[in-house]
Amino acid sequence: MQKYEIILYWSNEDNTFIAEVPELPGCTAHGDTQESALKNVNDAIQLWLDTARELGKPIPAPRGHRLMLA
Question: Is the pTM of this model over 0.70?
Answer without folding.
Answer: yes
